[in-house]
Amino acid sequence: MKQGADLQSLIGYQVQRANLRMDADARAALADHDLSPAKMTALILIRDNPGCDQTALGRALSINRSSAMKLVNILVDKGLIERRPGRDLRTNALVLLPHGEAQLAAMMKAMRASDAQMTARLSAAELRTLLDLLDRIGPDDTESE
Amino acid sequence: MKQGADLQSLIGYQVQRANLRMDADARAALADHDLSPAKMTALILIRDNPGCDQTALGRALSINRSSAMKLVNILVDKGLIERRPGRDLRTNALVLLPHGEAQLAAMMKAMRASDAQMTARLSAAELRTLLDLLDRIGPDDTESE
DNA sequence: TATTGTTATACTCTATAACTATA
DNA sequence: TATAGTTATAGAGTATAACAATA
Questions:
Q1: Distance from residue B145's CA to nucleotide D12's C1', rounded to whole Å
Q2: Over its length of 145 residues, how does chain A's per-residue pLDDT go in tens digits?
Q3: Is residue A128 part of a domain?
Q4: Which range of residues forms the domain containing residue A46?
Q5: Residue B49 lies in a domain
Q6: Quick check: B85 contacting A, CB < 8 Å?
Q7: Is A5 exposed, middle or buried (0-12, 13-18, 19+ CB in 10 A)?
Q8: What is the chain A residue with the closest CA to B3?
Q9: Is A77 helix (H, G, I), strand (E, B) or coil?
Q10: Residue B125's closest chain A neighbor by CA?
Q11: Which residues between 33 and 62 in chain B have a beta carbon less than 8 angstroms from any beta carbon of chain A?
């Protein structure tokens, strides 16, 4: 299939294509671990923010409370995290359990290998440049200045 | 929420974040047009490859025949494309209809504006660099040499 | 045998709306 | 009033498995 000039010139489309390639490889790398890349991200966020509540986790993952609820249920059912009493009687405090920590370590290893393999054709300097450019993608703020 | 070193160093994660930001803006830009970015991409591919069949379209979009079928049904129902007799009696030839062409033009305009707005903080040279780096993300081929 | 389209079914992820308890 | 969690329900998008027609 021909990919015309319209598609080639859209940055958003090319970012999406790159993301699809990386995500497919990451999913394959995690296939043995029974968790999607997004669920692994959730585990990392909970580990790095112990005691966070579900709503905050959802915000960090760009999903709403209800979706965060489902995600947390799955991780709890698998014995990877735990809900503990939170800072008031409404909130849960999420913590990573030892089992989750162990599984996360194994997944991170597979994920790093996938990441390195997919970016093997870029030098360290190019990777730094890429991260910088990606980070600067976002709404133009000139109107609010 | 803290975003620890593990996440910051994963290129795949940062590509995904950038993609999420651009996709959200693109969806908002297309909200009036009743078609997702992926469906707009399908229209572009059909326009640039008139007479292509559903399976080829699916391959270009990284979805299987069955999913392509559903997508094509939606575009046909909206009067944007048409199934015509293909190169043999098994295949359909997909073509963009005038109505689809008009809607695609309007969507491209909105999409280009969104794309430009989200990349406004990058210079033309930086955008070229970004496209080059993104294009080089993919499986390392060294073992097959 | 292989391929294209098609249909039925199911799964994942996400969202909305409403409810409860708490603040 | 506002917020956190919860539940029920629904929609989009995708996949698998099977079948018919055609190659």
A1: 42
A2: 998 898 989 999 999 999 999 999 999 999 999 999 999 999 999 999 999 999 999 999 999 999 999 999 999 999 999 999 999 999 999 999 999 999 999 999 999 999 999 999 999 999 999 999 999 999 887 654 4
A3: no
A4: 35-119
A5: yes
A6: no
A7: exposed
A8: A45
A9: helix
A10: A133
A11: 37, 41, 44-45, 47-49, 52, 56-57, 59-60, 62
Is residue B143 very low, low, confident or very high in pLDDT (cuts 50, 70, 90)? low
Cross-chain CB nearest to B118 (options A20, A48, A139): A139
| Cβ-contact A83, A92 below 8 angstroms | yes
Nearest to A51 by CA among A90, A79, A91, A78: A91
Residue A72 lies in a domain: yes
Query: Which residue in A144, A115, A29 sits closest to B9, CA to CA?
Result: A115
Report CB contact under 8 Å: A1, B47: no
Cβ neighbors of A20 (< 8 A, separation 6 or more) are B62
Q: Quick one: pLDDT at residue A121?
A: 97
CATH of the domain at A75: 1.10.10.10
| Nearest residue to A1 via CA among B91, B96, B49, B68 | B49
In a domain, A42, yes or no: yes
Q: Please tell me the predicted confidence (pLDDT) of residue A79.
A: 97
> What pLDDT score was predicted for residue A22?
93
Number of domains chain B contains:
1
Continuous segment of H or E residues that includes residue A81: strand A81-85
Rounded Cα distance between B96 and B46, Å, is 6
